[in-house]
Amino acid sequence: MSPRLSCALAVSLAALSGAAHAQTPPAPDTYAVVSLIGDQLDAVTYQPQVGTLLDANSHQAMPMGADIMDDLALWETNKALRAAVPVTDVALLAVSAPQFFVDESRLFSGNHVKLPADVDAAIAEAKAGKLVLITKHRADARLQVWHGFIGSGKIEGLGFYLDTVHRVPDADSTARLIGFLAPFVYIDVTLVDTASHTILRQTTITASRTVTSDSSAKDAGVWDVLTTEQKMASLRELLSKNLATVVPQLVQATAPGAAGAPAG
Length: 264
Fold this sequence. Notes:
There is one protein chain. 27% of the residues lie in helices and 36% in strands. It is of the alpha/beta class. It has one domain. Strands 1, 2, 3, 4, 7, 8, 11, 12, 13, 14 and 15 form an eleven-stranded mixed sheet that branches. The longest helix has 24 residues, at 228-251.
C-alpha cells in the first residue's frame, strides 16, 4: 500500500470513528424537577391608562390552597423528560414554603442559579446531575386572539386577564363583542447543571387563550364566561400542552439555546 493511500485510509477511518462517536446516544442522567409557579393565581383586570406609562391594571392575588398547579407541572415535566431522553431517574421535588415563591428573579444571577439551601440539599440527596427549574415569568400582556394579540400592562405566572372595555372581533361571526377573559401561563423553564449551578438552556412560555362574552353589552359578566371548573381546566391544558412542547427542546442535545413556546 502506498504511503498516500495509507494516509487517506487513516483519515477516512478517523472520520468514520468521529461520526460514530457523534451519533452515540447520551448516557442516562438523573434529573430533578422543581416548580415554583403554583402558590397563587393572578386575576388581572384591565384599567385604561391615562397620562402614564405605568401599569394601571388592578391585580388580585388568588392564593391556592393546594399544590395543584405545581404538582401538574412536576408530573408533566417528568412525563416529557422520560419520553425525550434516557434517564436514570427523575426526582420530583415539592416546594411549599411561601418564601420560595417571592421574587423568584433573585434565584438568577447572570448565567447561574442560586437555590435555597434546602432545595440544594434535596437535589444532592437525589444525586441529580441536571435540574429543570420552573419559575414565573413577568412580561407585557400579549393575549392570543384569532387576529393577533391584545392586552396592556404586565402579567406573571398563572392567572386570568379580564377586559370589560375593548371590542373584540368574534372569529365565528361579524360581531364585535365587548370584553374577554384570558387564562394565561407566563413561565420560564430552565435547565441547570447542578454541580456548577450553570444555566445550560432556558425557554419561556407565554401562552394564553381568550374567551369572549356572548353579549355586546359593556360589563356583561365577562368573568363568568367560564365556570370555576372551566377556568382551572383551561389553565391546566395550557400548562400541560406547552410543557410537553418545550421540555424536550430543552433537554435534547440538538435543542437551541433558547426557544419560545407557541402561545395557545
